[in-house]
Design brief:
Pathway: Carbohydrate biosynthesis; dTDP-L-rhamnose biosynthesis. The protein has 280 residues and is of the alpha/beta class. The protein has 9 helices and 12 strands. The longest helix is centred in the N-terminal third of the chain and has 22 residues, at 66-87.
Length: 280
């Protein structure tokens, strides 16, 4: 199975590149701010399956840059999905917990109504719609709180801040599942194979367990790093950001398990290895 992926430097793309049969397109090969170039790149690179692992992921910056974020996160995936639909190639796309409004405490099910709170979430929601509207075989995998040794993520931010501070304030009331990028790549490859073999796709959730808060993830990170950092747990109201984030990011991952046999990864297992790679 030949797999073409958009993204090369990102967290998920870096992990996808470890799998055999994967060809990656970096920004210089296909810039998502040019959707037609992305469509052309699919035509120019024969493959069995296409996975989009590139996105505009700067959540706060997107608030003042929504036009570009929309092209990258919605128009480009839409163009990719239409080429794939016409060519009969399955298309897999990654989306986010930030499409939900974060109300309640119940894990979000795949068919629950979405209502993004910020620009990033709005553009990702529009991307989901564009992929579905293309009408081809597809899978949309919503995940959350991705971490890995590569690119930018909260675990790396915490380790960087702890170089210069031994006391940090971190929000306690946003709840979700931290997800290792390597587990997402593994899930996508299983799904790609299944869709290639004729299985029906749709929209799915995939997040690490157990649920925690950002403060909980910060504490676990410092424990794994052996760093003595005092984490003060604060409410979201005490940490104002340009983009509002959902309080409830819990994702119900049951349909992914039922249809593909893929179970939520235990993020605590991978954290120690990832932290030591970051520190090395
Ligand atoms: N990070 C997270 O916590 C979460 C991510 N997701 C989703 O998972 C997917 C993968 O995210 P993740 O691996 O964390 O991404 P990263 O933030 O690690 O990397 C983003 C990737 O997208 C590429 N990219 C951004 N803009 C463009 C562009 N205009 N043209 C070409 N490439 C571009 C970047 O390339 P370059 O290096 O050139 O900038 C980089 O490879 C995305 O769809 C994201 O929305 C979902 C939930 C949580
Ligand atoms: C750095 C820092 C952040 N925070 C808060 C801010 C915010 O509410 C929360 C998370 O911070 P970040 O900005 O690192 O995380 P953020 O960029 O919002 O992470 C999101 O990225 C996108 C791409 C996704 O799709 C989401 O699933 C999610 O992973 O932690 C603190 O409380 N203390 C701190 O010292
Ligand atoms: Mg961020």
């Amino acid at each position: 199975m030949k797999v073409l992926i958009f993204g090369s430097t990102g967290q998920v793309a870096t992990e996808l590149k470890r799998h055999s049969g994967v060809t990656s397109l970096a920004r210089k090969d296909a810039d998502l701010s040019d959707p037609a170039a992305c469509a052309a790149a699919i035509a120019a690179h024969p493959s069995d399956v296409v996975i989009n692992a590139a996105a505009y992921t700067a959540v706060d910056k997107a608030e003042e840059d929504e036009a570009l974020a929309h092209i990258v996160n919605a128009d480009a995936p839409g163009a990719m999905a239409r080429v794939c639909a016409a060519a009969g190639r399955p298309f897999l796309h990654v989306s986010t917990d930030y499409v939900f409004d974060g109300s309640g405490e119940t894990p979000w099910r795949v068919d629950d109504p979405i209502a993004p709170l910020g620009a990033y979430g709005r553009t990702k929601a529009a991307g989901e719609d564009a992929v579905r509207a293309a009408g081809g075989t597809h899978a949309i995998l919503r995940t959350s709180w991705v971490f890995s040794p590569h690119s930018a993520n909260f675990v790396k931010t915490m380790l960087r801040l702890s170089e210069t501070s031994d006391a940090l304030k971190v929000v306690r009331d946003q709840m979700g599942g931290p997800t290792p990028a390597g587990s997402i790549a593994d899930a996508l490859m299983v799904m790609a194979r299944a869709l290639h073999d004729g299985q029906t796709g749709g929209t799915y959730h995939f997040a690490g367990a157990p649920v925690t808060s950002w403060a909980g993830l910060a504490r676990a990170t410092f424990a794994a790093a052996g760093r003595d950092v005092a984490v003060t747990e604060i409410p979201t109201s005490a940490y104002p950001t340009p983009a509002q984030r959902p309080l409830n990011s819990r994702l119900d991952c049951s349909t992914l398990e039922a249809e593909f046999g893929i179970t939520p990864p235990d993020w605590e297992t991978d954290l120690a290895q990832i932290v030591s790679e970051i520190l090395a």
